[in-house]
Amino acid sequence: MKKPEGKHALIVGRIREGTVIDHITAGEALNVLKILGITGTTDECLSIATNVSSGKVGKKDIVKVEGRELRKEEVDRIALIAPRATINIIRDYEVVEKKGVEIPRSLVGVVRCPNPGCISNTSEPIESRFEVVERGLHCLYCDWLITKDITGHII
Amino acid sequence: MQHIISIRDFTRQDLDSFLDRAELVERGGFDPRMLEGKILALLFFEPSTRTRMSFASAMARLGGTSISVDSVEASSIAKGETLADTIRVVSGYADAIVLRHPKEGAARLASEFATVPVINAGDGAGQHPSQTILDLYTIRRSMPLDGLEIGLLGDLRYGRTAHSLAHALSLYDVTLHTIAPPGLDLPLSVVHELRRHGMEVVKHGDVGKVIRDLDVLYVTRIQRERFPDSASYYDVASSYRITPDLLEGAREHLIVLHPLPRVDEIDPAVDRTPFARYFEQSRNGIPVRMALLQEVMG
Q: Does residue B2 fall inside a structural domain?
């Protein structure tokens, strides 16, 4: 996407209340929404910009969620695929809070275990559970270790 | 409430404490009425002879009784009931549950829904902690667990006993020698983890070249279904077979272990040598499982 001309031009409009997730790794915006559980069937008003030029990181994605302030524990989950993302909480068009994301210690119901023999891939009433370890994600049910393509395993 | 789900949940101190307790039991230091009035539920959704019978026997020796489900077909799982519901229901019938299930992580799930202790008796290709503890017990009865050269032979890629035992041994001062057919090596992720624990892991292709350096040789079954045809299976299996000739020149105190059942991995002639300890190992399942039942219900 080409950056629009003019000092005040914006790719997507400002939001009055809600959350802006900035500096998402280019191309990961839709996966970020997937992790946050925001789909086409949920009520949030969304603006998504992908491959936006950025002085800091070259290209980036931006997601704006109107009318919803995301909690820290919700957004920390996106650190797995967008470790440099920043979260801006907007009230009355102003940024009232700005924070980075931290990789959480555990992930519940976010990632599917790639092991077909894992009990979390059955109809049992449980959610997948992983602990975040140095080399990737460790399934707390079957001990499987996901070391690459974490995005590909997002539920 | 204490569950026994995975060997990873235990420290060396925990394991030593189980082994001490099993030793005490074997010397007769237990109350034969300790678990009188208690009921143990044996939920076996996969075939088992040794594990199921030895838990039932261990329970009886402590004065308790066992109730069991022997197959998926005979249970409400066949009607579509979840394992979680089965566990909630059986928690109301028994004071502890021993579970064997084909899915990895099944025992962990069971521990989340049970209101009584759960002991994992094997979950698919996952964990089988009571087997590992009895393996350690058998070794410790012959020699101290530190300073040993231990060989793991067979299907080290898929074999759950091999992974569990390797992990437990990494808590001790042990050098691990892995001997596996090509393609059935110990997974690299497991090797990395063992090395992170400070364990020296040495890979070998030929058991004959390392047998004289070992204190313990732990043999596991090489499964026929891992090979494209019978001919290639027999070819590989025969070159990893333990025979009296192979054991010529081995250390005098070497012990050969096997979780059983064996098929062709160990020549029956080895049974008559002082190296063969696999039947003793199987018998050790009783004091070890008595110790575990005491731990969770005593």
A: no
